[in-house]
Amino acid sequence: MSEQCIFCKISAGTIPAKRIYEDDDVLAFADIAPQAPVHVLVIPRRHIPSLDGLTEADRGLAGHLLERVAHIARLLGVAEAGYRTIINTHDDGGQEVYHIHVHLLAGKRIGPMVARA
Ligand code: AMP
Question: In what order do the strands lie in the sheet with 26-30?
Fold first, then answer.
């Protein structure tokens, strides 16, 4: 846990969020500024600042995170229609919160490229 990290605080329950799914290692919650009818953020509970911070030791967690994203899409009933997943990394990738997270966007036809400017 990083003391300053907003997503660590959401994971710990000290900042509120609309929680969609959780287990010991992963949490999913609604994005506060949704860019689509369904916009969920899926995070590992452990503080990893970005995709660039992943190491070989994180392979299990990274696999679990991605598998849970697919599970959550099915849970939300959007898997068949389809969805967009995005991981923004560092400044040029548009990353604002430095706790690795997967955006899960669905509920409308999302254009051919990245959904957010
Ligand atoms: P990124 O630009 O990939 O770092 O995305 C960060 C996302 O976190 C943005 O889509 C924000 O709307 C979202 N966000 C920031 N603070 C909160 C919060 N307290 N609860 C839910 N989502 C948040």
Answer: 19-22, 26-30, 38-44, 102-106, 83-86
Model confidence pTM above 0.70? yes
Q: Which DSSP state fits 66?
A: H
Q: At 44, which amino acid appears?
A: P
The residue from 39, 99, 101, 103 that is catalytic is: 101
Q: Tell me which of 14, 29, 41, 43 to substitute to probe ligand 1's pocket, judged by most ligand atoms within 8 Å of the beta carbon.
A: 41
pLDDT in tens, 48-59: 999 999 999 999
Sequence ranges of the domains in the chain: 6-106
- Domain made up of 6-106: CATH architecture: 2-Layer Sandwich (3.30)
Assess whether 71 carries a catalytic annotation. no
**Alpha helices, DSSP H only, in the chain?**
6-12, 59-75
User: Is the distance from the beta carbon of residue 11 to the nearest atom of ligand 1 less than 6 Å?
Assistant: no
DSSP 69: H
